[in-house]
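## retry 2 of 3
previous attempt timed out at serialization; input unchanged, resubmitting
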Amino acid sequence: MTTKPGLRERKKERTRQALVTAAIELFGTKGYEETTIAELAEAADISTRTFFSYFASKEEVLFEGTPLKLERSASVLAERLPGEQPAELLLRSFHFVLDQDTDLTGDLAKLRTRLILQTPALQPYALRKVLEGQRELAQGLITAYRGEIDPVVAVAMTGALVGALVSTIATLLGRSEQEGGTPADPEQLQAEMEHAVRSALGAFGTLA
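## retry succeeded, writing output
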């Protein structure tokens, strides 16, 4: 039986989402470096002190949801199907996250990509998040195929997956910015990500 979140939990989630909404608006209009934490807090109708109960920094607001995506991927990797090959399992984990979460193609993802491309100060943090994600996926794959897969191969496979996703998102969303801010079509973006991921993982095994 699923227990509904209590009033306190729902209020906290509304505040968290209000901060994310404020970030999309303020980062998009004022710029990332020009927006202060105090301004984000004010827009969400909370104090600056309360802000730090939800996020440790502006970067964390911008990358909201990343840990949840890793948890969802890990849940799939932990449930390997009989006869399923590593490349097939990674592809299934990608599909699961994409089906469950629109942030890969939503407003926050588009803003995040634009700001990373335009803000050098954000790029080290973004790279760290990418590497953290790759390590989490590699460990999940090694655990799923304990004794059956070389750790170096697991790292190579997850690196190919993550690299394909990052490159596709950056290329398509970056192109939309160069074309005068024309929004990238979500369906096209998903199709391109699917193609890139299949191409990257295809070198490690046959995919259905």
